[in-house]
């Protein structure tokens, strides 16, 4: 998926992601954060800022965020999307803010670009946001984690390797940071009405999820949430997981269509010999969507980890 298509997909799924997320795990993490000083938050693979917009009103009032994504296109959209969200809630937005953040805002790693910043302010929110374009392949820049109280990501972990997750857990432990990782695909999806090829397509798609996505080796795919839980447990964290499934009905037609197309493409990439079977499955599944009778459930897990 190119950046333009990914931008549209992230916009399409944002509200569904928010409804699926575990409110209980968010509350558990908030209880571990300081309330007497600004909370330093690192958002990995931040996309267009959905995680920021979800958490900003749920964290302690004073927040200092660093959002990192490898896509300059998506990073460039954080400000405008978040401005619209903030203004709809009556917050003031300062686009030229340069506040003392307690950690370096210089883009020092190879391939990074100059940081962009803005702030959001209201009676119960003082949120400064820095955005940076940077690859996350190695997590080898210590300053990313320095001064962070919370490290978070959404819809990322099924793309990363076990080695990457172990490095992340180690960096979080060194920083003393809590962790909240959400909407991690866990290998489950069910379709109604059912088609005979559903299981085959799911098997192939899950196999595709295990390919190397450039984040430390072969991706953990459907096993990523459980792997992350082990990695953080090994670093002395208390870890809790809760389901955050998408439950999609006829009102989610555009999202269903995008998913079905993506699943068919992934299945074909793994097994070109099944091309005709996959193509016919796609046609029937999309027909159910067009008829307003399609329901999909896509399994996800949220993971929260903190030091006691």
Topology:
Elements: H1 3-20, H2 23-30, E1 39-44, H3 50-55, E2 62-69, H4 72-88, E3 92-94, E4 116-122, E5 125-133, E6 150-154, H5 162-175, E7 178-192, H6 198-209, H7 224-234, E8 238-243, E9 246-248, H8 253-270, H9 275-290, E10 295-306
Parallel strand pairs: 1-2, 1-6, 2-5, 6-7
Antiparallel strand pairs: 3-4, 4-5, 7-10, 8-10, 9-10
Helix pairs in contact: 5-7, 6-8, 8-9
Name some characteristics of this structure.
Rossmann fold, alpha/beta, 308 residues, 10 strands
Share of helix, binned: 25-40%
Largest sheet: 10 strands, mixed
- Give the class-level CATH name: Alpha Beta
> Could you report the average pLDDT, rounded to the nearest whole number?
92
Q: Report the end-to-end length measured between terminal Cα atoms.
A: 40 Å
Derived from helix and strand composition plus strand pairing, the structural class reads alpha/beta
Number of helices: 9
Topology as a string of helices (H) and strands (E): HHEHEHEEEEHEHHEEHHE
- Poorly predicted runs are 97-114
Query: What's the count of strands?
Result: 10
CATH superfamily: Vaccinia Virus protein VP39
CATH architecture: 3-Layer(aba) Sandwich
Short description:
By secondary structure, the protein is α/β, with parallel strands linked by helices. It is built from nine helices and ten strands.
